[in-house]
Design goal:
Number of helices: 3
Number of strands: 4
Structural class: alpha+beta
Shape: extended
Strand order of the largest sheet: 1-2
Length: 114
Amino acid sequence: MLAKTAGPAASATGTWSSTNLVFMQYELKPDHTLEPLPAENVDTGLGLERGACVIQEVGSVFDTDGFRLVMDWVAAESGVSYGESAVATKAHRVLADHGRAMSFLIADGVTTVE
């Protein structure tokens, strides 16, 4: 856990969880029935971005080095700094998240028809 004093993931104790445990027991079939898995397991849900938050000791994926270049570019192009206000922070994060999603679409070979 990392110390965090404010924000959506902050707790009353000033910490936030970097993982979420998922106990996998069943496979959901198309007919909505559950079939037991051959081997039960636990997934920590730690993923690349949450791991980067822990290693880099930041409180948001948008503050990791993976997003800093995007945030800095948005700030330079818009003339508004990331973190300047709640509205600016949200706008920067929306642009960065949409850009990330578009990167995955391109990598998966998704193209437009026109």
